[in-house]
Amino acid sequence: MKLDELKKQMKGVQIIQMTPFKKDGSLDLEGVRANTRWLLERTAGKDFFFTPTGSNGELYAMSNDEGKAVMKTVAEEVKGRHAVIVGAGRAATSETIKMCQEAESVGADGAMVIIPYYHIPTEEGMYQHYKQVAESVGKDFGIQVYNNPFVSGSWIKPHLMARISKIPNVIASKECTPYIMSYYAMQRAIDPKDMAVIGGSSELLFSFQAVYGCPGFISARANFMPDLSYSIYKAAAARDFDKVAELVDSLAPFSSFSGKVVANHGPDTHTGAPGETYMGVAVVKAAMDIVGLRGGEVRLPLLGLTGEEKAELRDVLRTMKVIK
Fold first, then answer.
1. How far does Cα 104 stand from its chain's mean position?
2. Structure pTM?
3. 321 a catalytic residue
4. Same-domain status, 218 and 73
5. What range defines the domain where residue 288 resides?
6. What do you get for the CA distance between the two ends of the chain, in Å?
7. How far is 202 from 205, CA to CA, in rounded Å?
8. b/e for 307-324, b at 16 or more Cβ within 10 A?
């Protein structure tokens, strides 16, 4: 896919695909394939793009070979029908470059690259990181900056992101700030011809970001209910914010259940706001299993749901009419 075409696809719903693992902890590649086929049937002709091996895809818990196998499987199934922007970030620039080159070699269209973590870089170090990563791959391989302070301990500020956006094949960011004024400042600092600023905090925050022209958002829930996520995007694109509010409110039972699961398994060790853990990965995987997909297990240090919680989640999905 040419870079200009790839840029045009940076809108709509970015599905952060879960990685299914079997009971024995091994990678379920056939599950990856089956889940991707299910999604393709429901997203044809719509503004979606696919991201396997992201944070919610548990890339950090996989070997390089496992990550590459998941990327390859998704790229083979999608076959250009949507953009495939894989998660491919490591702490070191050199290792990130290797992973992006591997992603390119298996047919991905681009890579979502997390901010360097562990050792926090200077602004110049951050810029050089993305510049060298972008220059290490082909001119049509897109780079999406994953601007996530919760997993990296840093945040690329608007003036620096504007500079990074001028790197030719940096085409998008996944903007994870929870603060609407920070998002507003970022959106206003970036020329949309250079970069799409994608909402990185799912449907709820997108309902606020869309007012300021957010072109799309990431979603983990779209793994098992893509129609609802897409309806929110389409209502926002039509500037029908009453409909957006109604649709986002329909997610409340699922959100409340997720919060309950976090409390059930607490206390957590997060240094941020209370409840900001990754129990949500287990919740989405369990929901996928319930609707007939291959959600599978999580890998430690994440924990799965109890049998009682899974039964309650089934009732939640029935109330939301996700299942009968």
1. 19
2. 0.96
3. no
4. yes
5. 251-319
6. 40
7. 6
8. eebbeebbebbeebebbe
Cis status, amide bond into 301, omega within 30 of 0: yes
pLDDT digits (tens, 9 = 90+) for 17-66: 999 999 999 999 999 999 999 999 999 999 999 999 999 999 999 999 99
In order, the DSSP letters of 65-92 are HHHHHHHHHHHHHHTTSS-BEEE---SS
The one-letter code for the residue type at 117 is: Y
Residues 6+ apart with CB under 8 A from 97: 132, 133, 136
Instruction: Please report whether residue 225 resides in a domain.
Output: yes
Q: How far apart are CA 228 and CA 172, in angstroms?
A: 24
Q: Which of 146, 183, 230, 233 is catalytic?
A: 146
* 227 falls within a domain: yes
Catalytic residue among 174, 230, 278, 285: 174
Total domains present in the chain: 2
Cβ atoms within 10 Å, residue 235: 20
Q: Same domain, yes or no, for 166 and 57?
A: yes
Task: Give me the helix-helix angle, 252-264 and 279-290, nearest 10°.
Answer: 120
Q: What is the pLDDT of residues 217-269, one digit of tens each?
A: 999 999 999 999 999 999 999 999 999 999 999 999 999 999 999 999 988 77
State the Cα torsion 105-64-174-292 to the nearest 10°.
Answer: 100
Please state, in angstroms and rounded to a whole number, the distance separating the CA atoms of residues 73 and 107.
10
Is 146 catalytic? The answer is yes
Asked whether 17 and 223 are in contact (CB, 8 A), the reply is yes
Cβ-proximal residues to 179 (8 Å cutoff; 6+ apart), any chain: none
Residues 164 and 125 in one domain: yes
> Which of 239, 272, 290 is the last residue before a domain boundary?
239
In angstroms, the CA 324 to CA 322 distance is: 7
